[in-house]
């Protein structure tokens, strides 16, 4: 009886997980299906699970606008990859300094980082734009990449992950063997932090890829536009809103996010398994 009860509970758990998976996948599936439908079909029936044959026509409309989606795709990839690399590397380095080194202002510095986390990015956007304008950094991808070095939330996450996961004895042993600090960090600490780095890389990449506000105010030249800017311009067409082309653009925008997740998800699963073994 006890074994049967456990089996029934397990079946309900599996069914619940399958239901959650379907609910998670369904919006993306509908978006991909709508990318193959015409604007008229979408206006008549917003939700459909059956693909249509207007994908090439929607791609033609998308590429027939005054901007180049391929260029937007490349621009978004440069900004997202650059900002993600800067955020992950320097946030891990900052967390390493907070955990491993003992210095007088370590706790006040960490408190300051927590305080910065409470400030919304929109509050400082006007001052940030004025600063970038004065140093002639508008229409420059570096204005969107370099600020990612300061990522307080990521520093907090890396520090919390590093405290139980990073053995200080390994660091001390490397120092005794004559290892320099940067070599120790790059060769020993970064491999140990792979699960946390993969998790934060996904969040950082998605956030940077979907960012519309800052690129919209910093990038005014058409050849510098990112994919979210181009999709927003499609939606704002004064003559006719081409919903099929919008869904096609959204599908192209989402595809890199899936690729990044599938490339990094194995490290997240490995980190969870490692945590279970330690526990």
User: What do the pLDDT scores average to?
Assistant: 83
Which residues sit in consecutive blocks of at least 5 with pLDDT less than 50?
274-279
Quaternary form: single chain
* N- and C-termini, Cα separation: 31 Å
> In percent, how helical is the residue content?
over 70%
Number of DSSP-assigned strands: 0
Number of domains: 2
CATH superfamily of the largest domain: MetI-like
Q: Find the CATH topology of the largest domain.
A: MetI-like fold
- Helix/strand-derived category reads mainly alpha
CATH architecture of the largest domain: Orthogonal Bundle
Instruction: Work out the strand percent.
Output: under 5%
Q: What's the total helix number?
A: 14
Summed up:
With 279 residues, the chain is mainly α.
Keywords, separated by commas or semicolons:
disordered C terminus, mainly alpha, MetI-like fold, 2 domains, 75% helix, 279 residues
Molecular structure report:
The protein is mainly alpha-helical. The chain folds into two domains: 1-64 and 241-255, no CATH class; 67-235, MetI-like (MetI-like fold, Orthogonal Bundle), CATH 1.10.3720.10. The chain has helices at 2-34, 39-44, 55-63, 69-100, 106-117, 125-134, 142-145, 152-165, 168-176, 181-192, 194-210, 213-218, 227-235, 243-278. Helix 11 (194-210) packs antiparallel against helix 14 (243-278) and helix 13 runs antiparallel to helix 14. The longest helix is centred in the last third of the chain and has 36 residues, at 243-278. The radius of gyration is 23 Å and the shape is globular. The two termini are 31 Å apart.
């Amino acid at each position: 009886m006890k074994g049967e009860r456990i089996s029934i509970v397990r079946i309900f758990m599996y069914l619940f997980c399958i239901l959650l998976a379907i609910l998670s996948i369904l919006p993306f599936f509908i978006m991909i299906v709508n990318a193959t439908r015409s604007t008229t079909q979408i206006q008549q029936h917003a939700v459909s699970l059956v693909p249509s044959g207007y994908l090439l026509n929607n791609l033609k409309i998308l590429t027939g606008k005054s901007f180049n989606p391929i260029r937007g795709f490349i621009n978004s990839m440069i900004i997202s990859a650059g900002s993600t690399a800067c955020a992950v590397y320097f946030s891990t380095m900052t967390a390493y300094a907070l955990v491993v080194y003992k210095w007088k202002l370590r706790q006040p510095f960490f408190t300051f980082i927590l305080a910065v986390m409470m400030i919304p990015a929109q509050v400082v956007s006007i001052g940030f734009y004025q600063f970038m304008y004065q140093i002639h950094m508008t229409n420059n991808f570096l204005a969107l990449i370099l600020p990612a070095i300061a990522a307080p939330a990521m520093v907090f996450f890396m520090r919390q992950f590093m405290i139980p996961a990073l053995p200080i004895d390994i660091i001390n042993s490397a120092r005794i063997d004559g290892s320099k600090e940067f070599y120790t960090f790059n060769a020993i600490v970064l491999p140990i932090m792979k699960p946390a780095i993969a998790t934060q890389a996904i969040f950082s990449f998605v956030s940077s890829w979907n960012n519309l506000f800052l690129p919209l105010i910093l990038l005014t030249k058409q050849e510098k536009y990112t994919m979210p800017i181009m999709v927003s311009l499609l939606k704002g067409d004064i003559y006719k809103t081409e919903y099929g082309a919008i869904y096609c653009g959204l599908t192209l925008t989402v595809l890199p996010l899936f690729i990044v997740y599938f490339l990094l998800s194995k490290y997240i699963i490995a980190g969870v398994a490692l945590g279970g073994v330690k526990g």
